[in-house]
Amino acid sequence: MIICVSYFMVILDNSIVFTGLPQIRSDMGFSETGLSWITNAYVLVFGGLLLLGARAGDLFGHRRVFLFSLVVFSLASFLVGAAPSQWCLIGARALQGVGAAVLAPSALSLLTRSFTEGRARNRAMAAYGAVAGLGAAFGLVVGGLVADLISWRAGFFLNVPVGIAMVVLAVRFLPETERQDGRFDIAGALLATAGSTAVVFGIVNAADLGWTAPATLMPLMAGAGLLGAFVAVERRAVQPIVPLRLFASRERSGAYLTRMLYMGAMIGFFFFTAQYVQSVYHWTPSQAGLAFLPMTLVNFVLAVQVPRLLERVSRPKVLLTGVCLTTAGMVWLSRLDLHTPYLTGVALPMVLIGAGQGLALAPMTSSGVDGVAPADAGAGSGLVNTVHQIGSALSLSILTAAAATVSTDDEAADIAARSGAALTGSAVLLALAVLAVGILIVPSRATRNERSL
Q: Taking all residues of the chain, what is their mean pLDDT, rounded to a whole number?
């Protein structure tokens, strides 16, 4: 429970900001593309340092690192809530990403080490997957309520007492893991973070300056070069933060690609839908948060049933069904315009999206850590979370750039048109995720089952 609540706090913090975005834009004067950096600063640092955070758990002990990350994350949450300016807010969000980058892989490693493969681990991964889905959805509700009743800042202050409580409980109940000998792959971590940041920076610039502008092309080329250097460094490193052997499994590689596409689509869904219901329907932040309840409730109901379902149906089939349902809901939702009614145009598509996410996240996570050796547990869990966050940042920047190409003479009409364009992009990402599951994961599991006969 301690692990899941702590991870819930990280995921919730990633989404709690969404329903407060209109308030933040008004209070601090953010531009439309500048607003995306409130999310990108968090997820880029989160994703870029995850692998280093995972390695820290292997070297210093996962419980010790877990406690450190809770302290950093709680402190950064306080700084976000108290931020007096745009750059202070973005900087504090980046510091939150540092804490999350250490916390998330330590949590998953502690969970993986605590349960053997089979029924027990399926249940644990189902709980972990449910936390990921519910944290994202519940964050919208909490963020909306506190933004409406108090301020958007209050949602971040809530993390402080929760973090303190988790530190106390972790010290008392969580066992320490065995420490391994080794060293950090600093070069790999810096190249991964710098490369992904440069790519996102170039894509965000494209929204304002165009794809052929030097300020767009130079960061994109620099990012590609840095990521290429990252792969070269990992091939030669004695103790890489990303052991390339993790990609030897077709199922794991498929799970990484699927997660990157899937979570990229979902962050676009949260980012744009939260703004749509406030700008087009003129709802308050709390009403906007409650608008996501159809998704949240269905997500929860199905997520808790996944362990039983996995005992009767193969993991790839459950995953494929979940991703297909999410895709269908996103295609439906992408038809948004200025006159779309909430019930049939937003709520009912959310039911499909929530059902799909409830089914997909647990098997997606399990496939990402399936068969990983104990020595690679930290790196394996870190990679699962890395593709999650990097996929989110890259996709949000692409979707924001695509949305920025749509313009009308009315603010509400702009938001509606941009939301529809961005959600169409999310639907495309999900369709690619369906292909990844069908081509990589389903055949891989079928082949393994045949060999075991």
A: 80
- Cβ-based burial of 187 (10 A; exposed 0-12, middle 13-18, buried ≥19): middle
> Does the pLDDT of residue 450 top 50, yes or no?
no
CA torsion through residues 371, 377, 381, 386, sign: negative
Average pLDDT over residues 326-332: 96
CB 41 within 8 A of CB 90: yes
The residue type at 274: A
- Collapsed DSSP state (helix, strand, coil) of residue 173: helix
Report helix, strand or coil for 329.
helix
Could you tell me which of 253, 213, 197 has the C-alpha nearest to residue 383? 253
Residue identified by tokens 């439906």 is 332
- What CA–CA distance (Å, rounded) separates 30 from 22? 10
Residues 6+ apart with CB under 8 A from 390: 43, 44, 47, 48, 196, 260
Sequence-separated (6 or more) residues with CB below 8 Å from residue 343: none
Q: Is 82 helix (H, G, I), strand (E, B) or coil?
A: helix
Residues 6+ away with beta carbon under 8 Å from 308: none
CA dist., res. 305 & res. 321, Å (int) = 14
pLDDT tens per residue across span 283-308 = 888 888 888 888 888 887 887 788 78
Calpha distance 218→203 (Å, rounded): 11
Rg value, the chain, Cα: 21
DSSP 351-378: HHHHHHHHHHHHHHHHHHHTT--GGGHH
Per-residue DSSP letters for 286-327? HHHHHTTHHHHHHHHHHHTTHHHHHHHS-HHHHHHHHHHHHH
Q: State the pTM of this model.
A: 0.77
Whole-number Å distance between alpha carbons of 133 and 354: 8
Torsion from C-alpha of 352, 358, 361, 364, nearest 10 degrees: -80
Instruction: Round to whole Å and give the CA distance between 61 and 139.
Output: 30
